[in-house]
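G., the chain you wanted modeled:
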Amino acid sequence: MAKAKVTSMFFCQECGYESVKWMGQCPGCHAWNTLVEERITPSVAGSLQGKSMSLRTDNKPLAFSEISMKEEARFTTKIGEFDRVLGGGVVPGSLMLVGGDPGIGKSTLLLQVCRNLAEAGHKVLYISGEESLTQIKMRAVRIGEFNDHLSLLCETNLDVIEKVLLKENPTVVVIDSIQTMFRDSVSAAPGSVSQVREATAFFLQISKSNQISIFIVGHVTKEGNVAGPRVLEHMVDTVLYFEGDRHASYRILRGVKNRFGSTNEIGVFEMRNEGLVEVPNPSEFMLSGKPEGASGSVVSCSMEGTRPVLIEIQALVCDTSFNIPRRQASGADFNRVNLLMAVLEKRAGLRLAQSDAYVNITGGIRILEPAIDLGIVMAIISSFVNRSVPDGMVVFGEVGLSGEVRGVSMTEQRILEAQKLGFTTCVLPKVSLDGIQKEKFDKIELIGVSNVQEVRNLI
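Predicted structure as tokens:
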């Protein structure tokens, strides 16, 4: 029998684009220096699209009226913040990707999920390609007691894993991590584009055909993206990112893709000796330690999915010692901060050209919503004039290039969150005052502003 010819292909590590030759820029995602060479077997490459991607055995098309639609029966993990991000619980037969920096707590969180699901009677299988069984148990003992509904397996070969899954038929499976899985028939190293894509396609086929819910742990690059091709994120049903500083106690679980729930939902956790503990009130947690009477400190409100979260925005503006002023943003978009400073200089008359400016969102959370524009503006003005914002004030609104303050969505939810935490004054866009029921906010004063000049007069 003739031996299959082994050749090589170039794969983009960002989007999975295939090329027969190396190129400096990927034609698919236009990223530079992302194409890497991998050895493949042509006969094997053809089999990847056959066995792994066939999800149904009866390839009979159905009319639209013949398709029955019913609400997916979810089962909860008994971790409220985790269920919130998932959209209410785990959907049977779903494929979920959990990404995050090393040491952030991905494995710890999934072990806690496995423990709760096993206590509820679900058959759970934890497959690790990075740790031994003893190492996993040593880490699990800190979390609590585990029953025999949870099984552990140390394996990286997909052929062996397939036999175990078909024999055990678990309800939930955890793969830690996808970069360690490989198939012998694919002539590439574990963690390469070919192996990651083959492994993801395999678990996709297993989850859909056997109604097994599978959690996949994915390593991230230094840019914060899941290592391997971006096609991995397109194939799964849910993508969750674990954020935060591993040296701090807080963690933020963010859903960036969810076919069964709302996107951009967040769950807040605190790392303790017994594992991750959910934080039921993130607003109170984010504002802990806020200084009183300090200039440049402003409380704003951002919507994370359906949840309003109060955050503290800090700004420090001082004279520069260099020819070019230094600007730095932590937790906020750097270009957005520069844009808002240009608006203040042009529309509010602040001379910021010879000043260094530093903007920080406390708590380690990153906010990109335009609704915090007004908070950043007020923090910069407060630091520049060295006068503190009145205590008990919360600020939100979008700022345009003409200096106007534009309306934002979910105004009432933001005001209610501020009122619940004891704030007495709310500065918001004037256009948003007309669409709210003011009688609901008897404990908080509402101040509408239409431009940044009015905001300056409040300080």
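DSSP finds twelve helices and 21 strands in the chain.

Shout if anything looks off.
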